[in-house]
Amino acid sequence: MSGYKKTANARPVINITIPEELLDKIEDYRYNEIFSNSSQAICNLIESGLKISRREKEVDKYCIFVC
């Protein structure tokens, strides 16, 4: 992962730009799920989305589409 900044605890740091409405939704999620900070909430949302994406791909392998 060269090209990313690293923090003192050696975790990569990335900067993203998102719409304010999405940030509001992330902050609502953070407080509802009781995360310590936005980074934890965003990482959790990304992990959840990746798991769902992988599951959908697994299902797609076994589905037969009839036209």
How would you characterize this protein structure?
The chain is mainly alpha-helical and 67 residues long. It has one domain (5-62). 58% of the residues lie in helices and 6% in strands. It is built from two helices and two strands, in the order E-E-H-H. The chain has helices spanning 20-33, 38-62, and strands at 5-6, 12-13. Strands 1-2 form a two-stranded antiparallel ribbon. Helix 1 (20-33) packs across helix 2 (38-62). The protein is extended and about 45 Å long.
List the helices and strands and how they pair.
Elements: E1 5-6, E2 12-13, H1 20-33, H2 38-62
Antiparallel strand pairs: 1-2
Helix pairs in contact: 1-2
Q: How many helical elements?
A: 2
Strand and helix order: EEHH
Percent range for β-strand residues = 5-15%
Could you name the ranges where pLDDT drops below 50 across 5 or more consecutive residues?
A: none
Number of domains: 1
Strand order of the largest sheet: 1-2
The end-to-end span amounts to 43 Å
Largest sheet: 2 strands, antiparallel
For the secondary structure, the number of strands is: 2
Radius of gyration: 17 Å
Give the structural class. Answer: mainly alpha
List keywords for this structure.
single chain, 67 residues, mainly alpha, 2 helices, 2 strands
